[in-house]
Amino acid sequence: MNNDFAHSATSLTRWLKIRATPPSLQDNTADLDRLRRAVVEVVGNRPLLIPFNRTAKVALRFRRAGFTGFAVINDLGTTFELVDFVGGNAPVRVGVALDLGTTHLEATLIDLGDGRQLAHANRENGQIPFGADVLSRVHRADEPGGAAVLHQEVILSINGLIATLAKDGGISAGEIRALSVSGNPVMTHFLLALETAQLIREPYIPSANLIDPCHGADLGLVIHPSAPVWIMPGVGSYFGGDLISGIIASGLHQEEQVCMLIDVGTNAEVVVGCRDWLIACAGAAGPALEGGVARMGMRAGAGAIEHVEIEPGSGEISYTTIHSEKPRGICGSGIIDLVAALYLARIIDIRGKFRPACGHPRLLSTGEDLAFMVATPEEAADGRPVLFGQIDLDAVMRSKAAMYSILTTLVNQVGVAFGDLHKIYVAGAFGRHISPRQAIVLGMLPDLPLTTFVPVGNSSLAGAERALLDRGARDACRSIIRQITYLELNVNQEFMIRFSGSRFIPHTDHTLFPSVPFYNQD
Question: Is there a contact between 283 and 402 (Cβ–Cβ < 8 Å)?
Fold first, then answer.
């Protein structure tokens, strides 16, 4: 008997090459027992289960393949699961990593043998018509039939994304043998049809943080019915698998020196620590920073204004858009740039209020309030000016104050100064496009050397990819949630006090931002 691992030695689903001696009068071992024996010789003494609904299929396919081919094994952590047998050569060995976002889903199709990315796609979350944010969706789920609708919309969105990936990868969706999912607690609860009401009510307890792997068929997914679905574990009501993914992707849990991870999306999620300890918190600071609150706000996509400059002397404005397309709106990084530039050009004061006395020609009255015209109708994609109003400014001031308050509250809990941080990893589209210098001017990030800030892209997706491919990453997920301390900000008085002091540019205590010019309120 000659057995050896396929290249996918630690992926969520593995293929073991099996060459078993056919049965005879001298060896009358039953087919499944023969296969089990061959598999155990490779994987060792860890328990090996064959699900009842796969028993007949596995036995029949093993015999029809002439007792030679590939045993398909799901690695469930403490056990292995034998779910199929594939005859012939070079079977399709693909899986999907998914970032299950509140507004968008992003996923990659990956070769489980060598880790190559075969396709990449994203799509809007089909739940958006039922609420732009997780809070409104949780309230919708409390209505009769609401939870079932929201669950179904998640499944439809995932299946649609998987269909796109399969088409782009030249395979059928049913050939996808594994799925890893990274998302915030609310989205994970909707995916699994878990009760969500308690997530937004004190004491903010999830139904579950650590979910055992299930199968694609259990959730009604279009992937192979026996494909394992690995859900990245969470820690608390606002601290989910997406942030665990960020820790894995950045390597924060392996750092020798104290570092910080910041992930800004619908919420602001922050972790401080190193390989010896981790402490984290999360709070609602994200929407204005990702363009979700400003009336002309949009996500970082084609036509979004991503960087803005205003020459302080002349007041001349310049900007760049993603993919150099005509502007359609302004995303989070553009909003941060804009507000910082407005302050440095003295078009707004330290309270974040427009100064009509500045006389800038792009400061207009809309009839409701003052607004700054970032792009003229002639410049814009749809002929409508891109305006940024006082209401938008007020939302940004609240969000930036919440962001800095989260950071200061967390470091204060462990007696660490900002200057003690070796690196600050900034995740997501926020981290990919943000100008740390302008965020410092705004008083959202601490006043540190720019080399301290390290963008890490979509760390939620990157962590899901690692979990799909590497058992060590999956084991690390479980150890991290045991190691981490979660601070609940919803009932933290220190956070509320710090929030009030942070609602100025850059801060009421200007000594915290020595590199930022200070202007009186006139």
Answer: yes
Q: How many residues does the chain have?
A: 522
Residues 102 and 210 in one domain: yes
> Does residue 288 carry a pLDDT above 80?
no
Tell me the C-alpha distance between 9 and 13, whole Å: 9
Residue 363: domain span: 291-387
Return the DSSP state at 451.
G
Domain end point (choices 332, 361, 387)? 387
Q: What is the pLDDT of residue 269?
A: 84
What's the CATH number where 506 sits? 3.30.420.40
**What would the DSSP string read from start to end of 242-264?**
HHHHHHHHHTGGG-SS-EEEEEE
Structure tokens at 422: 């070796």
Q: Are residues 135 and 18 in the same domain?
A: no
Q: Give how far Cα 125 sits from Cα of 188, 199, 303, Å.
A: 13, 20, 20
Element (H or E) spanning 427, and its range?
Answer: strand 424-427
CATH number at residue 220: 3.30.420.480
Q: Would you say 236 and 269 are in contact if contact means Cβ atoms under 8 Å apart?
A: no
Could you tell me what percentage of the chain is helix, strand and coil, using 3-state DSSP and rounding each to the nearest 5?
40, 25, 40
| DSSP tag of 8 | -
Whether residues 364 and 482 fall in one domain? no
Do the Cβ atoms of 105 and 1 come closer than 8 Å? Answer: no
Q: Would you say residue 296 lies in a domain? A: yes
Q: How many whole angstroms separate alpha carbon 62 and alpha carbon 181?
A: 31
Mean pLDDT of the chain: 90
Angle between helical axes of 459-469 and 471-483 (0-180°, round to 10): 120
pLDDT (tens digit per residue) in 425-457: 998 766 677 889 999 999 999 999 999 999 998
Question: Of 306, 357, 358, 353, nearest to 327 (Cα)?
Answer: 306
Of 276, 281, 206, the C-alpha closest to 483 is: 276
39-96 pLDDT per residue, tens: 999 888 889 999 999 999 999 999 999 999 999 999 998 899 999 999 988 788 999 9
- The span from the first CA to the last CA of the chain, in angstroms, equals 86
